[in-house]
Specification:
Blueprint lengths: L16 E5 L6 H14 L7 E5 L3 H15 L7 E4 L3 H5 L4 E4 L5 H14 L9 H25 L4 E4 L4 H12 L3 E3 L3 H12 L8 E7 L2 E8 L7 H6 L1 H4 L3 H6 L1 H7 L2 E2 L4 H4 L1 H10 L4 H17 L3 H17 L3 H6 L14 H15 L3 E8 L12 E9 L2 E4 L7 H23 L2 H9 L7 H11 L2
Helix pairs in contact: 1-2, 1-17, 2-15, 4-5, 4-14, 5-6, 5-18, 6-18, 14-15, 18-19, 19-20
Bound molecules: 6-O-phosphono-alpha-D-glucopyranose and manganese (II) ion (MN).
The site of manganese (II) ion (MN) has 4 residues, from loops.
Keywords: Cobalt, Glycosidase, Hydrolase, Iron, Manganese, Metal-binding, NAD, Nickel
InterPro entries: GlycHydrolase_4_CS (IPR019802), Glyco_hydro_4 (IPR001088), Glyco_hydro_4_C (IPR022616), Lactate_DH/Glyco_Ohase_4_C (IPR015955), NAD(P)-bd_dom_sf (IPR036291)
GO molecular function, one term: oxidoreductase activity, acting on the CH-OH group of donors, NAD or NADP as acceptor
């Protein structure tokens, strides 16, 4: 594919191939569902072939049967193929979704339990757990990036793999701007805030900048360019009608003056979130290990229709229980349907793919090299920021500079991220200790050393 030329218009109409690494992942049917919606519409440049690759053949079989049930009766549904190996999966791909979980949910449980055993937060992407997850994942992500460069240098890689900021930072060292990291939490925040401010989420303009799972919405503008954030911050009822407002509380949000990503709850309310996570009978990873393990075990013996129904039930339960400890720490409220409105990873990924493949200009919050967006960071450092995307890829838009408190956290976390990448690349124990010991949620380098030892990192 020539950069800047939409896939569908390269010569005559041609097929579009999407490869998913981590094709046996539980959320793959959501991506497939979004592809089916495009097939129903007969959209030009839509995906015609879906290639799945996974290291776990059993899970692949289950996911493939869920996809088969889901595609039944949909004309133009993409052909699904299971790849023989990584290179086979990558060759000929226009887009590669990298959505792997190195170490599986068992690894996630260790990333939570080891820090918790030392009195630190145990969480998948934040704090010591996120650093441990990065140390394990980056070498695999780099291998993938190298194989993409070798066999599919024209492909766009959309990285879903967590911790998405660090993994994208590492892959960009190999692939440059051909890798784009995504997350569903920023768009979720924007849409929820817009609705609470009485605006149409599809038409607002906004400034959102930070790092992955560490960003802030600092401006929200209506169709006439009017600033909506001060009014929203002043209106307690509207402000506490949605997820982030309930998590952080009106008083703190007014003191802060910006709307933080939900993951900042682990930083601003570190005492409460740590206590809630420590008190819970099981960690999120343990819950998912049980829930997902149950699903894959039960679905393996069922026909496609039953597997699909079981998947749908399991998915709903997973969404409803998301960030349960944080909600427990703030009064035990339930997620509402509007809190799920971000659309999830699948929607962000599909919107991005559509914009590139069809050259349709759109705005998305993405993890890309900042190129001066945040003046204090080097241009090639990955930031999560508002981008304009078209056939030539994403370009960060100028946004308001983060305030000193936000910038301070970003710089500290960027040092952590870069140390984690260096540690994973070189195997340097010092770099790993730097990554862990510099994390604002790790309160002692001596503890950091013990955590590294226990993790065998
Ligand atoms: C959000 C985050 C993702 C994360 C997911 C965890 O969508 O943006 O980065 O992977 O939550 O959900 P889970 O059900 O795995 O706890
Ligand atoms: Mn995310």
């Amino acid at each position: 594919m020539t950069p800047g030329v939409p896939v569908a218009f390269c010569g005559t109409f041609r097929l579009m191939r999407l490869t998913i690494l981590g094709g046996g992942g539980f959320r793959v049917p959501l991506v497939h569902r979004a592809l089916l919606a495009e097939a129903r519409l007969g959209s030009p440049g839509r995906c015609t072939e879906l290639v799945l690759y996974d290291t776990d053949p059993e899970r692949l079989r289950v996911v493939a049967s869920v996809l088969a049930a889901q595609a039944e009766g949909v004309p133009g549904a993409p052909a699904v193929r299971i790849a023989d190996g990584l290179d086979d999966a990558l060759r000929g791909a226009d887009f590669v979704f990298s959505a792997i979980r190195v170490g599986g949910t068992a690894g996630r449980v260790r990333d939570e339990r080891i820090p918790l055993g030392e009195g630190l937060l145990g969480q998948e992407t934040v704090g010591a757990g996120g650093v441990l997850y990065a140390l394990r994942t980056v070498p695999v992500a780099l291998h993938i990036a190298e194989r993409v460069r070798a066999v599919a240098p024209e492909a766009w890689v959309i990285n879903f793999t967590n911790p998405a900021g660090i993994v994208t930072e590492a892959m960009a060292r190999v692939l440059g701007e051909r890798v784009i990291g995504i997350c569903d939490s920023p768009v979720g925040l924007v849409r929820r805030a817009a609705r609470a401010a009485g605006a149409d989420p599809d038409t607002v303009r906004f400034d959102y900048t930070g790092l992955n799972h560490l960003g802030w919405l600092s401006s929200l503008r209506g169709p006439g360019g009017e600033e909506l954030l001060p009014g929203l911050l002043a209106d307690t009822e509207a402000l506490t009608s949605f997820e982030e407002g309930k998590l952080f509380g009106a008083t703190w949000l007014r003191a802060l003056g910006v709307l933080p990503n939900e993951y900042l709850h682990y930083y601003y309310f570190r005492r409460e979130t740590l206590a809630a996570v420590r008190q819970a009978d099981e960690t999120r990873g343990e819950f998912l290990d049980r829930q997902q393990g149950g699903f894959f075990g039960a679905a393996a013996g069922r026909d496609a229709g039953e597997a699909y129904a079981l998947w749908e039930r399991t998915r709903r339960e997973r969404e409803e229980t998301y960030m349960a400890e944080s909600r427990e720490a703030t009064g035990g409220w339930q997620r509402e349907s509007c809190d799920l409105d971000g659309g999830g990873y699948d929607q962000v990924a599909l919107a991005l793919m559509r914009a590139i493949a069809r050259g349709e200009r759109t705005r998305l919050v993405l993890n890309v090299p900042g190129r001066g967006t945040v003046a204090a960071l080097p241009g090639d450092a990955i930031v999560e920021t508002v981008c304009e995307v078209d056939g030539s890829g994403p370009r960060p838009l100028p946004v308001a500079q983060p305030g000193p408190a936000e910038l301070g956290l970003m710089l500290q976390l960027k040092a952590v991220e870069q140390a984690a990448v260096d540690a994973a690349v070189s195997g340097s124990r010092r770099a790993a200790l730097r990554a862990l010991g510099l994390h604002p949620l790790v309160d002692s380098p001596a503890v950091a050393e013990r955590v590294l030892e226990r993790a065998g990192a």
